[in-house]
Amino acid sequence: MVICNPIKSVNVPLTEEQLKGLLKRHDKNGDGRLSRKELREAFRSLGLDFNGWRAWRALCHADENGDGYISEAEMKELVKYATKKWGFTVS
Fold first, then answer.
1. The pTM is what?
2. 50 vs 79: CA distance, rounded Å
3. How much is the mean pLDDT over the chain?
4. Contact residues for 57 (Cβ-Cβ < 8 A; gap 6+)
5. pLDDT digits (tens, 9 = 90+) for 63-77
6. Phi, psi angles (nearest 5°) of residue 34
7. 71 - beta bridge partners?
8. What separation in angstroms does the CA of 67 have from each of 1, 36, 48, 57, 62?
9. In this structure, what DSSP letter does residue 73 have?
C-alpha cells in the first residue's frame, strides 16, 4: 500500500512580490492572467502536489470578477489563500 500526502506545505519564506513573480512566470500565453491550468502548473513548480480540483478551488476563491482567471488585481487574494492553505510564508 502506498500512502501519499495529497498536498505538502511549502515552508520557504518569500515576499508577496516574490510569490507573485513566481506565479506570473506561468502565464504561458502572456495575457496577464492565470488560467486554471497555468495556476496548477505554477503551484506544482513550487513543490505542491497540486491537482485540477485544488487549482479550481484556488481560482474560485481568488477570482473576484468571476471570469475564470486570476488577474493582476486578484493576485493578492490568491497569495493570501496560498499562505493560509499551503503554508507559504509571506513577509
1. 0.74
2. 15
3. 81
4. none
5. 999 999 999 999 999
6. -105, 130
7. 33
8. 41, 11, 25, 14, 11
9. G
